[in-house]
Amino acid sequence: QVQLVESGGGLVQPGGSLRLSCAASGIIFRINLMRWYRQAPGKERELVAAAGSDGTTSYLDSVKGRFTISRDNAKNTVYLQMNSLKPEDTAVYYCNARYSMDYWGQGTQVTVSS
Q1: How far, in Å, CA of 22 to CA of 16, rounded?
Q2: pLDDT, tens digit, for every residue of 5-21?
Q3: Closest alpha carbon to 40 in 68, 62, 55, 19
Q4: Which of 18, 31, 66, 95 could form a disulfide with 105 if both were Cys (CB 3.0 to 4.6 A apart)?
Q5: Phi-psi region of 10 (alpha: psi -120 to 50; beta: other; left: phi over 0)
Q6: What are 21-74's pLDDT values in tens digits?
Q7: What is the pLDDT of residue 100?
Q8: Across the chain, which distance is largest between two alpha carbons, in Å?
Q9: What count of Cα atoms within 13 Å lies in the side-chain half-sphere of residue 11?
Q10: What is the four-CA torsion angle of 53, 56, 59, 64, rounded to 10 degrees?
Q11: Residue 96 phi, psi (nearest 5)
Q12: CA–CA gap between residue 62 and residue 59 (Å, rounded)
């Protein structure tokens, strides 16, 4: 049974930081493309960052320079370090694993507000 469990969301003031974690089980983590998506109220889900099995990373333009995705294959965990957070980063953040199929976590709420 595949499980992706996100943690680390919460309420933070503008300019603050959060680190999201996604712990995976039931998959061969090291061969999976790992991605973070987010969905704000009334908006479509969008791809925020991706970390390939080869170590390559990519980012949504609006988070470049502020967010960093990383993966620890020994711990079957992918992280999203989010710095200089803005109110427009407020969303539910979802972890995604893709190899032959797509798997999703339950999501974690990130709220950026003063």
Answers
A1: 20
A2: 999 999 999 999 999 99
A3: 62
A4: 95
A5: left
A6: 999 998 899 989 999 999 999 999 999 999 999 989 999 999 999 999 999 999
A7: 87
A8: 42
A9: 2
A10: 140
A11: -135, 140
A12: 8
Q: Is residue 113 pLDDT above 90, yes or no?
A: yes
To which residue do tokens 């996604």 refer? 22
**Which pLDDT does position 67 carry in this prediction?**
98
Strand-pairing partners, residue 109, are: 92
The span from the CA of 94 to the CA of 48, in Å, is 10
Structure tokens at 92: 């539910």
DSSP state of 54: T
CB atoms within 10 A of CB 109: 12
Q: How confident is the model at residue 98, as a pLDDT?
A: 95
